[in-house]
Amino acid sequence: MTGQNGGDLRHGSRHPPGAAFVHVLVIDVEFLVALEAEQILTEHLACTVEIAVPRDMVQTLQSRRFDILLLDAALMSAAVEPHVRRLREAGTGIVFSSVDSEHRRGLPGFFGIPVMSRPFDDEELVRIVRRAAISG
User: Which superfamily does 22-135 belong to?
Assistant: First the structure.
């Protein structure tokens, strides 16, 4: 199974050597949550994960290329929204995460983009990221 950019989405990230990878960018207000997402995704998907800190978020969204963005919904602001929209229009798979029950049904203006509840359920996170990679 491959993502929209040709990345390999098979179960297990450590095989086979030379496989194409999906590149995931994780940005969360809690660095430990971002590390947890990285661990879950690299253990279950053939992917690379990059973590960006919120203070560098706008610059990272403008300058880096990736297939999937896993973004803490609490970081959405007027400065960030245009970048997320541009990425979505360019085919980047977007997944929001949140501890806020208000976000469970989605974020205003971002219909159809899934919102992962935190703490993460490993299987659900993998399933949603895999789906986002395929559908972009």
Answer: Response regulator (3.40.50.2300)
